[in-house]
């Protein structure tokens, strides 16, 4: 009930933009920004579109990214491409690396089960574990990620800050990996669906998908980055257009609520910190002072997608989602461009 209240109250408090007349004067003023990227399987192509549009704005200075699952792949691809060629170097900049990531993901989908048999395949994965179905632990993502992402570049001190979440399965807790930890196992861990792949071993621990416990995490961006603007790029909607009635609708909405729960807990905690920060003697004021939160999501276009389509990654579909993401980012910028650096557009619950 608490998480639901946070979702409703947060959604209801999207603030109106500043007056359009101020836009021209501030269009080129640099604005540091961090990005929190939610996971969601193939729906992560929506986030690709959002990032592709934001990267076209030279005044937006991205300082750090957090991500889980598909959000982690997007974050790492952007950071690696940025390190190699800035925003848009056609030979390997951030935009080029993101496109290469999703082209390779779509090629992997060509070898997956067709949509017609996907329900049967999903039923099989519920009856048998990956330790039975995939004893050799073949994960096609491994080779693709090693080809697309330069992990050594991500460990460089000059790279964009990265905070990649995974779920440590024995203790059931979120673990956040940073730049010095970056390797292919970290991304595989963050995107490890336990009904498809064996838990990913890193050191003495084993990990599942980061979306279970941090989807995405916000705290590292708030407490470890200088930028005071944090943008959440959300795939699973906080709100629903109607009460779900069919079994599939109920399942979809249940999953949306479950995978948003970690985000709602962090937003609620930040709201509480904001209240406490103004009290004398509280040590939180420096960390939360001036924090500006923003939410960018796909609206009705993303809410209308069936959860099963998260497993669909053909190039036509991911290209459509990319354009939805670009359109959502374009609309957000048109409405809130002048709010960056000035105020939150998502008010924390009080």
Q: Strand-residue fraction?
A: 5-15%
Mean pLDDT: 83
Cα-to-Cα separation, first versus last residue? 16 Å
Oligomer: single chain
SSE order in H/E notation? HHEHEHHHHHHEEHEEHEHHEHH
Low-confidence stretches: 1-26
- The total strand number stands at 8
Question: Which SSEs are present, and which pair or pack?
Answer:
Blueprint: H1 2-12, H2 23-26, E1 31-37, H3 44-54, E2 60-68, H4 70-85, H5 94-109, H6 118-127, H7 130-133, H8 140-148, H9 151-154, E3 161-168, E4 173-177, H10 184-190, E5 200-202, E6 205-208, H11 219-224, E7 229-234, H12 247-277, H13 285-288, E8 292-297, H14 299-303, H15 315-336
Parallel strand pairs: 1-2, 1-7, 2-3, 7-8
Antiparallel strand pairs: 3-4, 3-6, 5-6
Question: Would you summarize the structure shown here?
Answer:
With 350 residues, the chain is of the alpha/beta class. Helix content is 46%, strand content 14%.
Fill in the keyword field for this structure.
single chain, 350 residues, alpha/beta, eight-stranded mixed sheet, 15 helices, 8 strands, globular, disordered N terminus
Protein described:
This protein is an alpha/beta fold and 350 residues long. Helices cover 46% and strands 14% of the residues. The protein has 15 helices and 8 strands. It has helices at residues 2-12, 23-26, 44-54, 70-85, 94-109, 118-127, 130-133, 140-148, 151-154, 184-190, 219-224, 247-277, 285-288, 299-303, 315-336, and strands spanning 31-37, 60-68, 161-168, 173-177, 200-202, 205-208, 229-234, 292-297. Strands 1, 2, 3, 4, 5, 6, 7 and 8 form an 8-stranded mixed beta sheet that branches. Strand 5 and strand 6 form a beta hairpin. Helix 3 packs parallel to helix 4. The longest helix has 31 residues, at 247-277. Residues 1-26 have low confidence and may be disordered.
